[in-house]
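I'm stuck. Protein, please.
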Amino acid sequence: MVVCVFGRMAGVIALGFGLVICGNAMAGDAVKGQKLFKRCKACHYVDREKHKTGPHLVAVIGRAAGSLDDYKYSKAMKASGLVWDEKTLAAYLKAPKKFVKGTKMAFAGLKKDMDIADIIAYLKAAN
């Protein structure tokens, strides 16, 4: 009986550790994200409220998509109804043209989930 209870507890503890490990695995590394963001710098600023080909990304987390008055967004982005949080950014960075059909963003997307998590961590740290 004790072995059975211990066995169940060990399984619960193992499951708990697995969830913690999985949760932290996608937390992202802002330092790595800063290096990866070099790909984005051609079109976006993250440190100043000035636009390039794409809109600036200052305070992008929590901002409604297509909401900066002084940037000309695509009709699709303006009508998307999105608010940029970790989930929406992750989906968009994975495949921008699939996530918002009609977006002007020419970037094809990032293949690695960890790269996406790192860039999001950098965006959060930069703002």
About this structure: The chain has a mean pLDDT of 85.
